[in-house]
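Re: XIL structure - here you go.
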Amino acid sequence: MKRLLRDGRHRLALASVTSVLVAAGVALIAPGLAQAADTLGAAAAQSGRYFGTAIAGGRLNDGAYTTIAAREFNMVTAENEMKPDATEPNQNQFNFSAGDQIYNWATSHGMKVRGHTLAWHGQQPGWMQQLSGSALRSAMINHINGVMGHYKGKLTAWDVVNEAYNEDGSRRQSNLQGTGNDWIEVAFRTARAADPSVRLCYNDYNIENWNYAKTQAVYNMVKDFKSRGVPIDCVGFQTHFTGGSSLPSTFQQTLSSFAALGVDVALTEVDVTNASTTQYAGLTQACMNVSRCIGITVWGVRDSDSWRSSENPLLFAGGGNKKPACTSVLNALNAATPTPTGPTPTGSTSTSPTPTPPGGANEIRGTQSGRCIDVPNASQNNGTRVQLYDCNRQSNQQ
Ligand code: XIL
């Protein structure tokens, strides 16, 4: 993608040709895009996926940090700046300055943004921590409406609910849980009404191993939501791998099992103790092998930026160099076949039971580029030049 974005003239020329070809019903061919890419975002885009990072607003004035981030990634999650304590520090007084700073930086560099997070037991403002019962339920709904209203139409996904389960598969006994067992579905229904254009995700850690009670509990929740029409579009697997919970051999099975329920899956906060090359390669491969695994986000840029910095868990060293784990991720991304545009052929070795490629039903996707026709700013003006862009399911690609 970066290659395309860097050369605006070529992009426009390609877009013009593309629109003619589309109008003529000709399959799209983008020569050269299938070659090995040397940045994470470009490598992931070859199969229609993204590669993101958490961005900390306080580091945006660090040139070495922003240089790597702008070069390597095409999706951004605010590490802390869109959490409840940041966005609603006093009840019903919203503050989006820190979140907007990250949003503006990301979009000015051609990146998409995931929202993180709306309803969570962690990082609640003090006033929210004091609430319970119906007052907290109302405050949660008001918070979702306030934050999602501000970012309406701007984000690619929201982590609506974060970390609602215990390791044994029971519900975490948070103040939110105390408002009633239906708090999660109320959060999702509120979110859908607040911004129908954004993908709604449940996000959690230690749900990567299929043979784990917490994974099964979240799976059953999503299955139940799907069967009852509770709106949910995606599940985020945080993928914080530590010595005690490293890459499980069942990760791909977990991803494909969730995908089979009719949700997208994504790896949302990846970091791995000492950046094990085999674990990074394995987790990337697990995503590449599941067509509805739409992208991977690492939880920071350099080791020195990580919330687990003593474990050196990221893809770039403190000095900015690519680590061996980065090369292993790039290799796995580059080896992925371009995303198919139709049903998986009979006899395919695809391990995903869901043949639907990532992307909306009405999108127009290049057979070779894996990218979508995108109408800038959803313009409806005659003569608008369309462009090739990462498929993101926004309405301006349908
Ligand atoms: C972490 C941030 O990285 C830290 O800076 C902050 O002090 C605590 O939160 N799961 C999540 C993330 O969903 O929001 C957390 O981020 C890491 C664990």
